[in-house]
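Note to self: keep these together.
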Amino acid sequence: MSETVRIEIRGGVPSDLLRSIHAALTHEPQWRGRVSFVEAPQQPEGLGGLIEALAVALAPGGAAAVLVGAVVSWVRRQSVGDVVCRLSRPDGTSVEVSAPLARSLRGADEVRALVEDLTRQLEHGSRTPDGE
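Structure:
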């Protein structure tokens, strides 16, 4: 049974950035067919079809670490100021990585340490309270 992780973006133009991370993920064979757009509910006075998040179906056996690694790599390449990427599980567990933090990492050891820490938090239920 797979679990779905939701990816949300703050900063920049979120819908454009979500399209960008979608393209980066689906470029890799292991994510094809597992990543989908989540549209915002249509507002009576507005247009529908705005992308608010991505949903990523994880396969069992270490897929969370691969996803976190891919997201950290993508966030590091963002030159759009203070982009923040949030990954959330259905139980409310979430982790965030910001572009400034990701870009400040020096060397593979620091990147690996961040990926391991975020993966551990995401897999073991370290909750981030709403609003943080």
